[in-house]
Design goal:
Hypothetical protein af1432, 2 strands, two-stranded antiparallel sheet, mainly alpha, globular, 10 helices
Length: about 180
């Protein structure tokens, strides 16, 4: 057993179960897909597309929307997953009480100061949202695509200083390639 395994298995597995419970009543914007599919895909992207198998990163990827979109708070994550996971998720959490322009600027500023692994998860988040565009209704797809592309470009800019980390180099290339393939 490694340092992040317990009686219930690896940390990432525990994180998926926690995220599934936290997001249990939520659906994606297509109103058919359980929301938990998104954090699971983000975690899979970190591991399978970006090549990062670090347990803390995988757990934080699975939990990345729990503080922002559920009743979960930092203390809950700290208690169940430790300070590293909780801090990564907190760095990926927007203050939804703020007006959108201020919220986005504050989020980008905080993410730029965070651990590079938070920006890696953000790249996986935008990658998944770009991949998910096809589930949008046709009449909303162009607006959603433009917004998703803008968020992806912001995430790329924030992560460009992290190229000394191999998973980030791969992530940057994959997100850029996806934007190009989508014509965005």
């Amino acid at each position: 057993m490694n340092a992040h395994e317990g009686p219930r298995g690896p940390l990432w597995q525990k994180a998926i179960s926690f995220a599934a419970r936290a997001h249990r009543h939520q659906l994606r914007k297509d109103q058919g897909t359980p929301y938990v599919a998104h954090p699971c895909r983000v975690m899979a992207t970190v591991a399978l597309v970006f090549g990062c198998a670090e347990e803390v990163v995988l757990a934080a990827a699975a939990l990345h929307d729990t503080i922002e979109d559920t009743t979960t708070d930092y203390d809950d994550l700290h208690k169940h997953f430790g300070p590293e996971v909780a801090s990564l998720v907190a760095a990926l959490t927007k203050n939804m009480a703020r007006p959108e322009a201020a919220r986005e600027a504050e989020y980008d500023a905080a993410l730029s100061r965070a651990d590079w692994r938070a920006r890696l998860i953000k790249l996986a988040d935008v990658y998944d949202n770009l991949c998910d565009l096809e589930t949008s209704p046709a009449e909303h797809r162009s607006v959603k695509a433009r917004k998703a592309a803008d968020k992806a470009r912001r995430a790329l800019t924030l992560a460009e200083g992290d190229e000394s980390h191999a998973p980030t180099r791969l992530a940057l290339a994959e997100v850029r390639a996806l934007l190009a393939a989508l014509g965005l």
